Amino acid sequence: MRVLVTGAAGFIGSAVCDTLVAAGHDVLRVDLLIPQAHGEQAEDQAARPDLARLDVRDAGSWADRLRDVDVVCHQAAMVGAGVRVADLPAYAGHNDLGTAVLLAAMHEAGVHRLVLASSMVVYGEGRYVCPEHGAVRARVRDEAQLEAGRFDHHCPVCREPLGWDLVDEDARLDPRSSYAASKVAQEHYSAAWVRQAGARAVALRYHNVYGPRMPRDTPYSGVAAIFRSSLEHREPPQVFEDGAQMRDFVHVTDVARANVRAVEAVMAGDTDDFEAFNVCSGHPVSIRQVAEILGATGGITPEVTGRYRPGDVRHVVASAERARTRLGFAAEVTPDEGLAAFVHDPLR
């Protein structure tokens, strides 16, 4: 198949391209090469003969690029927390307007198959359960609570701390940042396009992705890369709150495999017209454990600081069941294996 990949020079996009090529597909690569994602390497990437520098928001750029394309794998996006109000136009522009322009151009070119890079951030908080009173929707934690070191959510009836449970794809969407809101909008635009254009799309909700070529010191840097940078300076990783926040860390090679499977499934009609899937390892891990696994190689003990970031969610851990049964995807790299190896992986 002929696959056009946006954001093809990025951390995840480049891994997706490599895996698509290894699977025998013809790959067209486009990327705007924004400094936030590529830093000082942006201009070096621009010289690559196999990469077209293209802004997804530019409607006039798409006609030639989409000729003879079977499916688009849309990885391009502004990421990061997006906690400032001033960030809103950038997220809305790159992510939402960019996706809308791309979808309109795809329809005009007769390309009606899409794999969209979405994110776990669309859920906001994860799923919480009180042993006595069942499922409870968690409210936003206020700063007075966080300042007092009370990080857990509590049952509104008995006031006991809530336990976490797996979040499946039918969970309520509750974005808590500019980035999260833009990812929800991307999914909604894609679902509307599917209905209006007679198309088919898959949204892959990535959880915490890590691995080789991860950005080192950009807004795109995830917590694993931040911990890595601390260790390289022989400093203890700084763990926020009490370190008990639960997440799912998924290796970039598994994310790339999920994209290839999604490309093949959406082309074969093996999915619903619009369907979302969690892309995760299926092995929950706490943030403190992540820091401990990474620090073990160099004998550096993480520092649990009790500091917090307003707007952070306490727990969000995915169910891998739908991806396994409907998409035929299961991660191969566990966090124990992958994070231990990540200590030595090259970063950008």
Q: What would the keywords be for this entry?
A:
16 strands, 12 helices, alpha/beta, 348 residues, 3-stranded antiparallel sheet, globular, 7-stranded parallel sheet
Polypeptide structure, described:
The chain is α/β, with parallel strands linked by helices. It contains twelve helices and 16 strands. The strands form five sheets. It has a seven-stranded parallel beta sheet with strand order 3-2-1-4-5-9-14, sandwiched between helices. The chain is globular and about 55 Å long.
The proportion of residues in beta strands is 15-25%
Question: Helical residue percent?
Answer: 25-40%
Low-confidence stretches: none
User: What is the strand tally?
Assistant: 16
Structural class: alpha/beta
**H/E order of the elements?**
EHEHHEHEHEEEHEHEEHEEEHEEHEHH
Report the span from N to C terminus. 30 Å
Largest β sheet strand count, sense and barrel closure: 7 strands, parallel
Categorize the overall geometry: globular
The tally of helices reads: 12
Instruction: Give the rounded overall mean pLDDT.
Output: 92
Major β-sheet strand ordering:
3-2-1-4-5-9-14
The radius of gyration is 20 Å
